[in-house]
Amino acid sequence: MLAAVLVHPDKNTVLPFFREAITKQDGSKKNDCEHNASKRLIPSCAKTSRAWR
Question: Nearest CA to 43 among 15, 18, 10?
Fold first, then answer.
């Protein structure tokens, strides 16, 4: 699981916002990697943040 979170250096609380599973994609036999999962996660974060404005 790859997650986008908000962390403050002086606090011990972590706020998760988005997550993307690292799973088998497009018929592959091996699991996906963090890099490919981030390619799916970042656009969904950007799309949602534009909707909040």
Answer: 18
Q: How many domains does the chain have?
A: 1
pTM of the predicted protein model: 0.60
Q: Which domain holds residue 28?
A: 2-52
Of 17 and 31, more confident: 17
CA dist., res. 5 & res. 18, Å (int) = 7
**Tens of pLDDT, residues 20-31:** 888 776 666 666
Q: Which spans in 1-53 are helix H? A: 34-52
Q: Using CB atoms within 10 A of its CB, is residue 1 exposed (0-12), middle (13-18) or buried (19+)?
A: exposed
Distance, in Å, from the CA atom of 51 to the CA atom of 44, rounded to the nearest integer, reads 11
